[in-house]
Amino acid sequence: MSSFALAWRNLVRQKRRSFLMIAVVTFGFAAFALAGGFIAQSFEGLREGTIKSVGDLQIVDRRAVGKAEEATLEYGLPDARRARALAGADPDVAAVLPRIDFVGLMTTGAKSVPFLGVGVDPGPEAAATLVPELIVSGKYLSGDGGDGVVLGTGLAAALNVKPGDRVTMMATTPDGSLNALDGIVTGLADVRIKELNDRYVAAGVGLVSRLLQSGDTVSKLVVFLKPGANEDRAAERLAKAMAAGGYPIVVRHWRELATFYEQVKLLYIGIFGFVGAVLVVIVILSAAIVMTMAVTERTREIGTLRAIGTRPSGIRTMFLAEGVVIALAGCVAGTVLALVVRAALNASGIMLPPPPGATHGMPINVKLYPLAYGAGILAMVLTMAIASYFPARRAARLPIVEALAHV
Predict the structure, then answer these.
(1) pLDDT tens, residue by residue, 225-274
(2) What is the Cα–Cα distance from 159 to 153, expressed in whole angstroms?
């Protein structure tokens, strides 16, 4: 009879103790798998949201890297239409969006508030990003944008304006002069980062170019790639194509621009690692206690096995096999429990609170993440093997006569 078959019979014989230990492994595994799925979903959502905001890649003049918003047009990309056509010719590029970053002062005559503005091409911007989904009043820019502007709800509240009202934007041109233009508020956007929501302004590149007197120069080109495209290869091809076209540029990846993403990722990894370590310690301690009790209760049985010729290694193997069987049974039950809880949570519609700096929460969504389940199985098996080893070693070292005389 194999060690695992014998281990299973021993576990069936000790139903209450086996059930207790399997329950510990079940809940530990389910917690591990659910936490992994939740964090994987959070990473995926954060990644997609970040890319929708900053693009997969950004093309900027190498001299503009590290400069403040008000200085970017001094080192902008001239002849933006030609630059956009060069970038759009790459086979992996889905969209190329021109953007102009600028700062200024917005006034209604009665009140003035500083703003952070972005000039966009409304049609492609609406198709490639999530900005139109943030509109809570009025509508997003259409056509070339005309004289329309979209304000963050915080900025609109500070100015006490609504869709249809006129505002005046004042900004400094690249040569240092002050210029002003009137705009019409077409919509209000509830931007999810509060500090940006209180300063956010979007307008068509045509209106912004007239305000800044910048001609066909833009701050950067935001590039969105087709699904499955290799970012590194696309970035390399774009750099060569733009350099051949006479543009001294740098192609920046979204990870370079999204420091918040990396910070949140490290935070989640740290939390998950801590929770996982706590679960492993709890399972090890619980299993060690139960296995020690099993050795104590079965001392005479161990002595009998030794007396009929079972080697110490066989005793060790038997108890280690029991630990592994408990781990596997607990993982199977934990998988079922995790899938049931996952389905219930995803269907519950529970809203998570907004993360720091954000204005909106999101519905809880636990992803089915196979790697978390695989890692959970490995962790539980190793944990039970470690927890079983020391009681098993003690059982194997018991003298035969002492074991048989144990009461």
Answers:
(1) 998 888 889 999 999 999 888 888 889 888 888 777 777 778 878 887 78
(2) 10
Output the DSSP codes for 180-226.
EEEEEEEEEE--SBHHHHTTEEEEEHHHHHHHHT-TT-BSEEEEEEP
Phi, psi of 202 (to 5 degrees): -125, 140
Farthest CA pair distance, the chain: 101
Please check the confidence at residue 1 and state whether its pLDDT lies above 70: no
Cα separation of 281 and 232, whole Å?
41
Query: Under a CB-based contact definition with an 8 Å cutoff, are residues 117 and 101 in contact?
Result: yes
Distances from the Cα of 203 to the Cα of 71, 233, 236, angstroms: 19, 33, 31
* SS3 state at 161: coil
Q: How confident is the model at residue 292 (pLDDT cuts 50, 70, 90)?
A: confident
Supply the DSSP symbol for 253: E
Mean pLDDT, to the nearest integer, of 358-369?
Answer: 70
Q: Which two tokens stand for residue 390?
A: 């020391």
Q: Are strands 200-204 and 112-120 parallel, antiparallel or unpaired?
A: parallel
- Kindly state the average pLDDT of the residues 272-292: 76
Q: Which residues contact 46 (CB under 8 A, 6 or more apart)?
A: 261, 264, 265
Euclidean distance between CA atoms 166 and 149, whole angstroms: 9
Domain ranges of the chain: 3-50+261-404, 57-228
Q: What is the pLDDT of residues 149-189, one digit of tens each?
A: 999 999 999 999 999 999 999 998 887 788 999 999 999 99
* This prediction's pTM: 0.69
How far apart (Å, rounded) are the C-alpha atoms in residues 98 and 84? 7
- Bridge partners (DSSP) of residue 115 are 104
In the structure encoding, which two tokens stand for residue 68, read together? Answer: 């403040």
Q: How far is CA 268 from CA 59, 94, 265, 320, 343, in A?
A: 30, 31, 5, 34, 22
* Separation of CA 320 from chain center: 38
